[in-house]
Amino acid sequence: MSLHDKLHQVQQSVESGAIAWPTHIVELASENDSLVFTMPDHGELTVTVTCGEDEWLVMTEVAPVSAVKDVAAFNHTLLRLGMALPLVSIGIGQLGERESYVVYGQLFADCKFEALSAEIEACANAALEVADLIDSE
Q1: For the domain that residue 44 is a member of, what is the CATH number?
Q2: pTM to 2 decimal places
Q3: For 130, phi and psi rounded to 5 degrees?
């Protein structure tokens, strides 16, 4: 099955309501072979879902690294917090011209859509928690 077919299959599942997906607006971003979930219950946060041959990648941007006052201290806090944010990882990714903190999760390509839905929700929740940490810094 092609990547486009996999993404279309997920989009159909979302639109049909066959399983519970987080509250969202979903669109197929053909230019980068991904689905973009805009989540109104999470402050219009966008979560991007892509699929490779072996895995699904679910990712959302939290904030630019430049938004953090003390990057070393914040990174130390994130490492300690890692176990408290189930199902996700936190990293720094190059998004366009800037480095940003991202929350992401990976699943096997043949996972059930229920697992993919849970991963989207987990990434969104974790992103809000990390953003709160940045705001309280």
Answers
A1: 3.30.1460.10
A2: 0.87
A3: -65, -40
